[in-house]
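Problem 12. The chain below contains 102 residues. Write out its predicted structure in token notation.
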Amino acid sequence: MYFRKFASSIALLCCLIPAAFAADRGYYNPQDIDEIEVTESERPANWAASLNKGTVLDYELFQQGQVVYRDVTQGMVALRLNDKVIRVVEDTREIVDVLNTL
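Solution.
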């Protein structure tokens, strides 16, 4: 009786533990190598002026940015758009910080 309960609990744990570790595997996939670079002319004319701390980043700009760093614990993403690095809350696209690169 006890052996059967013990064996079933071990079998259940063996099934659940790999699923817990496999849940995040696709999250850090690199962007496509064949992805076409977005040129300056494809962005809106005043895109750099709209990058203010606390505002919401336009969805098209969010999609066009290259992910530099992703912090899963805080839900933050650092995106590169031309010569700027923008830290954004990933879910709401709220701009936390705008950095100018040299």
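Discussion. The chain is about 25% helix and 25% strand. Students who got a different answer should revisit the alignment rule from Section 12.3.
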